[in-house]
């Protein structure tokens, strides 16, 4: 018959090795779980002591920035409207001044032409018997720049 003692001894060693491996895995799992709980607790503690106050400060700053941005936007719209209104009023004033100057220049031009015509008629040596425009020399209108 075959001797099973060696086979039994090898199976026993394998069983003992498996039991030792199982105990090591269970121990590693328990240690790993304890480390996980400790790290989680530490992270929560750091978050509550440091991150939460920083977050409140950042939220406050963001609220202030949003308020300032809204105010700047509103003021920008007001300035834009004021500039557009001012440009419109400047254009209107320029048109009024242009019309006023044009009227004054037209009046002054008319007065100057009239004075020129009077001076030209006084200085003309044409006989009074001949009507203007039929003589040899230029007429009063021709001297004044008008059409004959």
Could you please describe the fold and organization of this structure?
83% of the residues lie in helices and 0% in strands. The chain is mainly α. It has a domain at 1-44. The longest helix has 119 residues, at 5-123. It is rod-shaped, with a radius of gyration of 56 Å. The protein starts with a helix and ends in a 5-residue tail after the last helix.
Q: What string gives the helices and strands in order?
A: HH
Share in β-strands = under 5%
Termini distance? 159 Å
Q: Structural class of the helices, strands and pairings?
A: mainly alpha
Radius of gyration, Cα only, in angstroms?
Answer: 56 Å
If helices are DSSP runs of H or I spanning 4 or more residues, what is the number of helices?
A: 2
- Mass-distribution shape: rod-shaped
What level of helicity do the residues show?
Answer: over 70%
Count the E strands: 0
**Biggest sheet details:** none
**Whole-number mean pLDDT:** 86
Query: Which stretches are poorly predicted, pLDDT < 50 over at least 5 residues?
Result: none
